[in-house]
Specification:
alpha+beta; Tetrahydropterin Synthase, Chain A; 2 domains; 4-stranded antiparallel beta sheet; 3-stranded antiparallel beta sheet; 6 helices
């Protein structure tokens, strides 16, 4: 179990798949066709007959192996339901025919979670949202370990934000950590929680930060008055301490 994520099925990881340049296959095919026509022209039917059969079969097999892989993309390849490898190189290639290829983007992407209402560590209702920067580093895991990895990321991101919000108070006295006053530590904690949840789908979290943080509307005015009263009390205490210091001097 990973932060509440239960993984019972087989987990996949990337492995390289052999492929060749698509242009080299096209060039070889052209040469083969020229040799075939040459045999027909010179009447060498002992050679032409098997070559013709091979050419007939190749017209079905060879075209199915061509594919194009764009920059910052990967192809997850399955052969009759079995995962056989991942291709990261961009370009025009030829590989095993009759395969199913799924394209996975390797670009950096971000999620802006919706504002959610949750109770902080002290039980006060707050509104919180986060921005998360991520990318796929293991296409096989992203494609085969879950049904829809993007939906999985969205759900786990919201769950992680809820967990984080419930672990810290919105505001704290003294030097205790809080959501409002310790943004760097809170961001680091959020990133760690997310990374633990998303390792199973081959995702790396580049950055995670709180994008919105506020008391819920029903208590916002009450908490504002409390903060103002606290600020006035602290100011009065500061004045008294300075006055005592001046008298002592």
């Amino acid at each position: 179990m990973i932060y509440g994520v239960v993984v019972n099925a087989k987990e996949f990881s990337d492995k390289n798949l052999a492929y060749v340049s698509g242009l080299s296959i096209i060039f070889s095919t052209i040469i083969y066709v020229l040799l075939l026509f040459s045999g027909i022209y010179y009447g060498n039917f002992i050679v032409v007959l098997p070559m013709s059969l091979i050419a007939l079969v190749s017209t079905v097999i060879i075209p199915s192996g061509f594919f194009v892989n764009n920059p910052n993309e990967a192809k997850v390849v399955e052969f009759f339901g079995n995962y056989i490898g991942t291709i990261f190189q961009s370009g025009f290639f030829w590989t095993v025919p009759f395969v199913r290829m799924r394209t996975i983007s390797l670009k950096v992407r971000n999620i802006n979670t919706s504002k959610i209402k949750v109770n902080d560590f002290n039980g006060n209702p707050i509104e919180i949202a986060a921005v998360i920067v991520w990318k796929v580093i293991s296409p096989a895991k992203a494609c085969l370990n879950v049904g829809d990895y993007q939906e999985f990321i969205n759900i786990q991101s919201e769950t992680a934000v809820r967990e984080l919000a419930g672990s810290y108070p919105y505001d704290a006295e003294d030097d205790n950590e809080s959501l409002r006053n310790n943004s760097m530590q809170i961001s680091s904690k959020l990133r760690d929680i997310l990374q633990s949840r998303l390792d199973v789908v081959g995702i790396i979290i580049e950055d995670a930060r709180i994008a919105h943080l506020a008391y819920s509307s029903e208590i916002a005015q009450l908490m504002l008055r409390r903060q103002q009263a606290k600020a006035i009390t602290n100011a009065r205490g500061y004045i008294v301490r300075n006055a005592i210091t001046m008298v002592d001097e």
